[in-house]
Amino acid sequence: MTQEELAVAYIPPTLAELGRVHFIGMGGAGMSAIARIMLGQGVTVSGSDAKSSPGLRELDTLGATVYVGQAAGNVEGADTVVLSTAIRENNPELAAARASGLRILHRSQALAATMADDVVVAVAGTHGKTTTTSMITVMLKGAGVDASFAVGGTVQGLGVNAAHGTAAVFVAEADESDASFLNYRPHIAVVTNLEADHLDHYGTAEAVFAAFRKFMALLPADGTLVACADDPGSANLAVQAAAAGKRCLSYGFAQGADIRLVPGSQDGLHATATIELRGDLLPDGAAIPLTLALQVPGNHNLSNAAAAVAVALALGVDVEAALAGLAAFSGAARRFEAKGEGRGVAVYDDYAHHPTEVSAALRAARTVAGDHKVHVLFQPHLFSRTVEFAKEFAQALDLADTVAVLDIYPAREDPLPGVTSELITTSLTKPFGYAPDSGVAVRQLAREAVAGDIILTVGAGDVTELGPALVEALNTEEPARGSARKGSVDG
Known about the structure:
This protein has helices at about 5-10, 15-20, 30-40, 55-60, 90-100, 105-115, 130-140, 200, 205-215, 230-245, 300-315, 320-325, 355-370, 385-395, 420-425, 440-450, 465-475, and strands spanning about 20-25, 45-50, 65-70, 80-85, 105, 120-125, 150, 160-165, 170-175, 190, 225-230, 245-250, 260-265, 270-275, 290-295, 335-340, 345-350, 375-380, 400-405, 430-435, 455-460, 485-490. The protein is of the alpha/beta class. The strands form three sheets. A ten-stranded mixed sheet has the order 8-7-9-6-10-11-12-13-14-15, sandwiched between helices. A seven-stranded mixed sheet has the order 16-17-21-18-19-20-22, with helices on both faces.
């Protein structure tokens, strides 16, 4: 059955029914988050991964039984096995679990089991889920609400990607990539935006939109949809939700948004805006104007924060306490994350892997760089996404001053004939272009950058590992401004 079909009738088991839980691929961000929460809830947890990692070692210290390497014997004694979409059918642990008749859950189903009777805030959308989920979590903690949370990246300031809290609120990043977000039962559903993506799973844009309509329909009669008024897909979903009798709170820069942003200043890594609330949403005695001040750059982050404010209002959290909590937010892992500096050039890393995300990251980079230049090392993610959005990627990357594009990171896909990074670089107007050798690209960008510039590694693959190499190259390569050229990076 597909995730869509499973979700229609899915009722999560209770924690007591799970018994001992074994995670196949426990070191991954999503899997480790669920394992951490279950450990906090007193569940006996074991898990494996192909190689050791800091996340895996930390779970070991928290009480999980950890296996490095995957073998059939690892599932002995387990009652329930949890896996992600990335686990293939020929995995020896999965084969052993099936042969033993063990309960097998997708990670989204396992996460749903941890939510119990909590008020669930599920954050979905094509872009911005991790940051928005992180913002909501930090905001609530700052306002005195110790919510449980599960995020697809480490929350800076909290140091973890998940925790079991004491409040009866659960904040979860809801992954739409394989429609597994339909396994949750949210009381508050946030949709940051809605565009065509993950067509390797859905096939068509309409199928993506249909999945989000199903997600919206999961809301109970007293639930709330929080939707971005600036995004056509999200705004249209809000119209449909209102027609179905659902309560909706809109947010954004658009006129008429229930939580409306009025742009303020963009100064380096800081962004501010004034928030105007729809009349009936403004609490008695609230200070006017309401000022939103963030330690992260870009209008997209102001928008993410407005979504968090909408969640605070839906939960009945004091709006001024919510704004104070957001002021303490310092970012999420791989979301414009500082990686170091060399020769006066700052290096950042961003997970952006869709044209809209790349554009938002580069516009934020522009506010940080000011009058200086922005250099980008980009790694496309998935062959299917590259062929679908090659021209859009080129348009987004042209916001930078120089761009080096690495080979495609395949992730879960096999190569497609004729699909290479050059589908993107042939449409670029900025130097340098296609970069088949990452080491050469690192040195080339380091030579191009001068003090005050920034270099941004961009993509959902292993490009993130090149940040330290860029910092090292900045401290060893001599700058050669004026040498940028269109074509290939060939050293």
